[in-house]
Amino acid sequence: MRIVSWNVNGLRSAHKKGFLDWLAAEKADVVGVQEVRAREEQLPEEVRAPRGWRATHFVSAVRPGYSGVGLFARKAPDDVETVLGVKDMDDEGRLQVARFGRLMVVNCYFPNGNGKERDNSRVPFKLDFYRRLFERLEKGLRDGERVLVMGDFNTAHQEIDLARPKDNRETSGFLAEEREEFDRWIRAGWVDTFRHFEKGTGHYSWWSQRFGVRERNVGWRLDYVLASPGAMPYVKRAAIHPHILGSDHCPVSVDLDPKVRR
């Protein structure tokens, strides 16, 4: 069973760059996308209901052209929840919690800490979002449920997770308080699936769109799949796919034993 996460930086834009060709070729069972930036009715029909995918589900922000998440599934989920219960957060369309048998898949677009003036003014909102989702999932974590949290976390966890850590200590995405919040998730038992299998440097999932940055691999690892202790025994592989173009992010994936659903 393969599960893939991708911040598409505008699903309509990604569609024009070959998203459906990638989706058809990708041997995935579930694909979660972030930063859809469109209401469902604004998406082309072939994106809303691509051939071979039993179910799609989209959550949009109240603000037009902003945020949003989407889910593509080969088999329909048993249930999908989309709210944290905090209006300011729910209005931004950042969350899908889908159940596939005994597996819970959380597709999430975590907030960026940058304000309109690139001033880190949204960091408190971002950290509050992290904490509220943590609390929403805490009981399942303790009870041994099989949970994956995937998406654009908008945080590079450790120095190994960005090309230039010394230059970005005051930049949202690598602030001490953001990294500490990520640490709290790991201390609680969540497993960074990619780092479980790969300890080396140079693995990133986002690059600035400035000329030559991606080619030189001056990137950040902002996209993750975290596994609960209950899910981790079923995770067989985790990967980043930097060769996939169409967005400033690339997809990340995990392969699981299909028994995880049963």
Write structural notes for this entry:
By secondary structure, the protein is of the alpha+beta class. The protein has one domain (2-261): Endonuclease/exonuclease/phosphatase (Deoxyribonuclease I, Chain A), CATH 3.60.10.10. Helix content is 23%, strand content 25%. The protein is built from seven helices and 14 strands. It has helices at 11-16, 19-25, 45-48, 87-90, 123-142, 176-188, 193-197, and strands at residues 2-7, 30-34, 55-59, 69-73, 79-81, 95-100, 103-109, 146-152, 191-192, 206-207, 219-220, 223-227, 235-240, 252-256. The chain has a six-stranded mixed beta sheet with strand order 3-4-2-1-14-13. Strands 5-6-7-8-12-9 form a six-stranded mixed beta sheet. Strands 10-11 form a two-stranded antiparallel sheet. It is globular, with a radius of gyration of 17 Å. The model has no long low-confidence stretch (mean pLDDT 98).
List keywords for this structure.
262 residues, alpha+beta, Deoxyribonuclease I, Chain A, six-stranded mixed beta sheet, 23% helix, magnesium
Short characterization:
This protein is of the alpha+beta class and 262 residues long. The chain has helices at 11-16, 19-25, 45-48, 87-90, 123-142, 176-188, 193-197; strands spanning 2-7, 30-34, 55-59, 69-73, 79-81, 95-100, 103-109, 146-152, 191-192, 206-207, 219-220, 223-227, 235-240, 252-256. α5 runs parallel beside α6.
